[in-house]
Amino acid sequence: MAAIPPAIRAIPAFALTLLLAVFSMRSFELSDLITLQLLLVLHPIYYWTIFRPSLFPAWLAFLLGFAIDLVNGGLLGLNAFLLVFASLVITKQQRYLLSQPFPTQWAGFLFVSFAAEGIRWLVICAANMTMFSPASALTSALCSAAIYPLTSLVMLGTYQLISPSRTAQKLD
User: Fold this and answer.
1) In whole angstroms, what is the distance from residue 64 CA to residue 62 CA?
2) Phi first, then psi: what are they for 28, rounded to 5°?
């Protein structure tokens, strides 16, 4: 039997990533002070950069962030910068995070999520020359981190589905 090419095996991972990117393009107004905009595309960036870095290069993070910026109509390049920066930081810590249990990886995601939302809040405050309440940024980061275990479980299933050794076993 012929082996399935890696590009074909990666289709479920790309589909899941695009789905989370589409959900990242929406914002939800919870109250007058809190608008929730989850950067859910940060989930696959974090997960795939740790477990399969070849599936999620920095240029793909840039393209997804730029697409989110175009659709949202916010500062052009802000999400692209945040996602590339997060990708590079996670790449530097990949070996450490790979050897850690899930709670430590989750804490790492919590840190990345708060850092990304904090940087976004600072840039938006500076661009508008107005000090906005950080409640939206903190709530978005916390909600994004709370959802991460569920999305990582789905990505684990996708990872097992696209794993070359598992594919080779199914073909034999």
Assistant:
1) 6
2) -125, 125
